[in-house]
Amino acid sequence: MARIVSLILACVVLLTGCTLRGxxxxxxxFATDYRNERDKRDAQNTEKNEENxxxxxxxAEEDDDDDISxxxxxxxxxxxxxxxxxxxxxxxxxxxxxxxxxxxxxxYSKHMHEKIYPASTTKLMTALLxxxxxxxxxxxxxxxxxxxxxxxxxxxxxxAEGDTLTMRDLLYCLLVYSxxxxxxxxxxxxxxxxxxxIRMMNSEAKELGCxxxxxxxxxxxxxxxxxxxxxxxxxxxxxxxxxDALKEIFRxxxxxxxMHTSSGIEKTLYMEPTNLYFMxxxxxxxxxxxxxxxxxxxxxxxxxxxxxxxxxxxxxxITEIFGSSTKEKLYTEMNRIFNYILQPTT
Length: 346
Known about the structure:
alpha+beta; single chain; two-stranded antiparallel ribbon; disordered N terminus; Beta-lactamase
């Protein structure tokens, strides 16, 4: 019965629709020449297997309503927001939520079903597909310098053509350091081509019940057709937390990656976290332990942060903020949400 109710509620949200707040996003962080080069490369890689070529990135919202289903029943869900006046009066972010995942209760939400740009929180889906379809000790070979990314300001690990490293190390590069080249390396290893991997991303999103999500790349660099909602990202993050290997990476406060060049020379890279709680720049309120999560940051998406945390009673929480204007405001506003969580219920 709970599964049927979840399906009905999801369909209600799909039918009522979501409005993209276009006035919030005024700049583009996406280079069209990169997309053209990607298409040329994928066509070459698949010319011997033409049935794998996808002529257009699939859109999750085009799927039939009857196909939408949740993989499990123990989820937080509501078709409406749960406002908290004192949080919203002091906030400027576009979308946010706070869920108790032990009790599946919604403590707070603002515009959680409205479309937003996910930026690098996209990489949660990339990591989820990697953990589901690969072994951690798989060896991945980098096919070109920086995996072909030339977008200005993109976070890069600096891979060179011919470098080899394990999938485990790539996932640390992806989730701790947020390397965009790491996302592409994973996509090409798992899906053989980026287009096929994008298809897998949207298929997985649909299976999780993400009815307002459309992925067109594995890293989150801006594209107007690459969007989601805070609620859909909760579903993806919640699924990631079911895998111990990913939880271990989320907890990392830094990691040394070992790889080999094309000539067999070993080299190491130290990956600092993008999570400023782990860098010691900001502290969570007393009583909250931040266990990890994912950051995101583009001009169009703003500053974004998704976290899994626990309180002193061991209760687990997923908290999210999308569209904050500065990192200082992002972490200040996240701490306000934490303080609200810690307040005793009456």
